[in-house]
Design a protein that fits this description.
By secondary structure, the chain is of the alpha/beta class. Helix content is about 40%, strand content about 15%. The chain contains 14 helices and 15 strands. The protein has a six-stranded mixed sheet with strand order 3-2-1-4-5-6, sandwiched between helices. It has a three-stranded mixed sheet with strand order 7-12-11, with no helix packed on it. The protein has a three-stranded antiparallel sheet with strand order 8-9-10. The longest helix is centred in the N-terminal third of the chain and has 38 residues.
């Protein structure tokens, strides 16, 4: 009986199954930890590379070129490359317009050796997000055309004024491209027009995409998983340094006042320009809107370019949101955690031995964890320690008033 119990306890099948489960869990945990470290290091490196006082392209015009070829049906990104890309792009577009309210964005897709523009440059997030959702049931055929897609975007971008920042973000899942001509001539044309091209690869690094990004001053990278993909997209939310040939110019903008129209007594004022192409929509007369100070045309939302006179309509908070790029928070000092019992000033998380690095603000001397440090510089744009210090805030307000 004892021999049977000993044989049952040490059977190789049972031991193998338990060992395999343990190895799977360990490998999965190590993989998640390594990816998180890569993302944190990339975010930290990107913040340190920002040069204070550098001129930025604040009024951005960005075209997203999305690969819709057969390769986007692969399932290395769940559920598929394309569906994962659509989900991440929706969040990216919302955040892009929130952080860059006076910018514009358009979408181009490439499949079957052709390029198709599905969204013109617009200053509102609803239109591109709606067009992206309509692509969920699109057909994926053939291979993309890098040259056709870039030249389609270039036709619009080269018509923009010289003070505008021109950018292209290419999301490439295919390892091949079918181009009708010399791609090097197209790259030279992009460089001449000052168009900045960046590439996010979903499969592997392509030499031609690397050359495109390097010659136009853009960035090129290949994603590891969906988290790394999201981080690569987030890196393009902040405005890039302005091109050397970017001219300085005064841009005319309007600050409309809010008005509620309940009747159609004045058709030119009462009809909402956003719904002018929908004659069956009765809300175009009764919806609250914003009246253009130049032509009194009504629009539902801001920011928007007036369809009647072409004036850019914004509100004061939109410009204030772009203000923090001109005066960013200084980088926190990275120090090695020595094991002293203390908490992060922002989230109140207690530091443990696994926290190798902590970050200290030079002005208020408060200590922050890596997650809060990245959140402060990427989203909050205000140090909580400095904000709770009345002496520091009074000095900041005085400096801002003197600068203005």
């Amino acid at each position: 009986m004892a021999d049977e119990e000993e044989e049952k306890e040490y059977r190789w099948e049972t031991g193998y199954e338990k060992t395999w489960e343990a190895i799977q869990e360990d490998d999965h945990g190590m993989l998640e930890a390594s990816v998180a470290d890569i993302i944190h290091k990339a975010k930290r490196k990107r913040m340190l590379e920002r040069k204070e006082g550098s001129r930025l392209g604040m009024m951005r015009h960005l075209y997203i070129i999305l690969d819709c070829s057969e390769s986007m049906t692969n399932q290395d990104l769940k559920p598929t490359r394309f569906l994962c890309t659509l989900k991440l792009l929706e969040g990216f577009i919302d955040e892009f317009f929130y952080q860059n309210p006076i910018s514009q964005l358009g979408i181009i897709i490439s499949r079957n050796k052709r390029a198709e523009k599905i969204t013109d440059l617009t200053g509102n997030s609803k239109k591109p997000i709606s067009d992206l959702k309509n692509l969920q049931h699109t057909s994926f055929t053939g291979e993309p055309s890098l040259q056709n897609s870039v030249e389609l975007a270039l036709k619009t971008l080269k018509m923009l004024p010289t003070h505008a920042s021109k950018e292209i973000l290419l999301i490439m899942g295919s390892l091949t491209t079918c181009d009708p001509g010399d791609i090097e001539e197209t790259i030279q044309a992009l460089k001449t027009e000052g168009v900045r091209c960046s590439v996010i690869g979903l499969a592997a690094e392509l030499n031609i995409c690397k050359i495109l990004a390097v010659n136009t001053g853009g960035e090129h990278g290949v994603v590891l998983d969906d988290k790394h993909f999201k981080e690569k997209l987030t890196a393009h939310i902040d405005p890039p340094p302005a091109a050397t040939r970017l001219d300085a110019a005064l841009v005319k903008m309007g600050f409309p006042h809010h008005a509620l129209q309940t009747s159609a007594t004045e058709a030119s004022v009462a009809v909402c320009m956003c719904h002018a192409d929908k004659p069956d929509d009765s809300s175009r007369f009764t919806n609250p809107g914003y009246l253009c100070p130049q032509c009194l045309a009504k629009h539902c939302e801001l920011p928007v370019e007036c369809r009647s006179c072409g004036l850019t309509l914004v509100s004061a908070p939109h410009l204030a949101r772009s203000y923090h790029y001109l005066f960013p928070i200084k980088h926190f000092t990275e120090v090695t955690y020595e094991g002293n019992p203390t908490n992060c000033y922002a989230c109140q998380k207690a530091f443990v031995d696994s926290d190798k690095k902590v970050y200290i603000c030079e002005k208020c001397n408060r200590t922050f964890c890596v997650d809060c440090e990245i959140f402060i510089h990427e989203s909050l744009h205000t140090c909580p320690g400095c904000a709770t210090n009345s002496a520091i805030m009074f000095k900041v307000i005085n400096n801002s008033n003197n600068a203005s």
